[in-house]
Every structure is written in structure tokens, then in C-alpha cells.
């Protein structure tokens, strides 16, 4: 997934520039027992249902079964259908260099901006990136039914054919993903992500982990095909540490058809960008993804609840009024951060494109050591670039970190240009 509902977003934990304002006025973490500091949330908790509806054959209570028990939450969840696949950005058009960068990989065939959660199954069914050899692990975060299957059957579920498993799935991302079958609490249902948190599992609110369990960087383990994170604990959740992890194990997603470099495809590291390594100041204070993307709401009968329509926070008055006392123009500030990030992405994409094409031209004339070095530069530079580009906020979650990772991309490219006698 690329930017979807995060197109101009600034998740609460994301940016240093938001610290002073939101520390004073935004709601704190919604689950104090799991938050590192912070106070109790002013968001109302869901009341326990008198009776849990009947689960389906996978053990999942589907969203529609909750609609009469939690009508406000259900209605706002269904509002996510407005974020439809129609009219989405084609990233191969926005970044034409991607065809060169992803040569030999499925993303060169199709890469569109993601739609809302209700379309998760439709989107994975329609992507041109799958083929007859694709495994079911590609469905990991597309439906709670597959999550339940994995939790029941173990790693063998990852090895099943994609098409065979997809035919069984009917429920897109919904209630079970974040609540299991108990709406009174949040639960991280993706157990591989719980394992990857290691001993740091209690250092981040569960309200953020339920988002992070799918909004993260992952790979498919070569032997088991299991969805796996390239780290254990928060310290390892940086682009540099993740790259070192992949290098040490000799992992590659594919071999680039033009340069022969063993390549890596970054996924969507929102959680790592916010909580990884040194963490953002907002993260340290215990703010969650829900604080900026799930607005407090009140029904006509006066019932208070958390909206389940996942929004761009700058477009929801109930969220933005918390920030107005400290920000004269927060939406404008976010647009500026995003422009700085995307402008630099485009600049470096052109540099990467030229480097890849030059390496492809020269590779047969380079000695073995130089060729290996040039290919490693391609692998590293592109990973740092990709890590920023695929993170769903266009830099707004953590603009300083986005620039640091683009700096690392540029440093690699400068070394590569010098190695190939190119003018930078």
C-alpha cells in the first residue's frame, strides 16, 4: 500500500515539528497500560455486547454482524468506501523511473495508490503483480479470515497457492483485524508482528500496534514463506538496521534484470518511521495513530464514540480543533513537508535511473570487484529511496527522518557515480 488515507496525513507520533502543539492539546494514548507514558484517553471505550454474534467458518465475526450492536462504529467504518479504487494515482506515471528501478519485478507491471480498507480483497485480486506462482502469503494483511487461518494452521498457510486461498476469502480488512472478536479492546492479531516487537511489546500502545501490524516493512522467509519482519524490537526498526539485516542474511526480493543487482523492495514502513530507532518525540509521549486518524464523534442521541472512518487529520474539524491553538496553518505546514520530500524523491529518482542505465551499459566491462561494489550501491541506494517513497505520508510522519534516509540514498549514488566515472 502506498499513501491511501495518509495522503496528506501527519500521524500523531510522526513529526518533531508537531510535538509542542500536540503535546499540549491532542488526546493521549488510548490504552494507558500499554503506553510508555501519556495519560488516559478521552476517547470512549466500546461497551461490551450482551452477546457476541456467530463467527464464520474461520472464526471471524464479520463487520456486518456487528452493525446493530455498534451502529455508529459500523456506519463510520463503511464510510471508508468513499476511498475507492477509482481515480487513484498511478505511481508508474508519477515516477516513470520506477519502470527502470523495478525491472524484473512485479511492481514494474502495476503500482497504484491504495484504496480504503473495504477494498483490500478487491485490490489484491485485481493487481497485475500476481501470477500462477504467487503464494497466499501475499494475502497476509488483506483479510482477517486469512489472519485467522494462519493463527490456526501455522506457517503451512503461507505456502498455499494464492488463487486457491483468495477464492475462500470474503471479508476485507475489518473489525477482527484490530479487535479480534472483542470490540471492547484492541488486539494485535498478526502474531508475527507481536514476535517482532520482542521485549519492547509493552513500550508502544496496542492502539498503535494494531495499525503497525500491517503498516510495516516485512519479507517472506525463504524456507517457510512466512511473513516476517526484519528486526526484533524497536532499535532495529530503522532503514539502516533493516538493510544490514537483509545484507547479513543475503536476502533479495529479486535480481534486477538490467544490472544483475540483488534487489530489495521496501513495503510500507509507517510504524518503523514513527516508532523505530530513537523514535519521534511524539511517539515517546504515547500518542497513537488513532489520535490523528480516528476522530472523536457524537451520535444524534448523544452517544460518544470513536469514528472508524480513517481520515486525513487535516480534513476533520474534530481532530484539527485540537491543534488550532498552536498552529496557524497546520495543513499548509504538512503540504510543505510533503513537497520537500517528494521534490527530492523525484530528483533522486532521476539520478537512480541514470545510474542504473549506466551500470547496465558498463557491467560487462567491469572487473568482478568493481561490478560487485556497483551492484551493492544500486541495492542500497534504491532501498533508502524506496523506504521513503513507499511510506504512506510523503514524509509528513517524520520529515527529518525522511530527509536523513534520502541523504543516505544520495551518498550511495555519489559513490556510485564516482565509481562509474559519471558526473553527478
From TrEMBL:
It catalyses: 6 Fe(III)-[cytochrome c] + NH4(+) + 2 H2O = 6 Fe(II)-[cytochrome c] + nitrite + 8 H(+). It comes from Adlercreutzia rubneri. GO terms for biological process: anaerobic electron transport chain. Pfam families: Cytochrom_C552. CDD domains: NrfA-like (cd00548). PANTHER family: CYTOCHROME C-552 (PTHR30633:SF0), CYTOCHROME C-552 RESPIRATORY NITRITE REDUCTASE (PTHR30633). This is nitrite reductase (cytochrome; ammonia-forming). One of its GO terms (cellular component) is outer membrane-bounded periplasmic space. The keyword rRNA-binding does not apply. Belongs to the cytochrome c-552 family. Residues 32-56 are annotated as: Disordered.
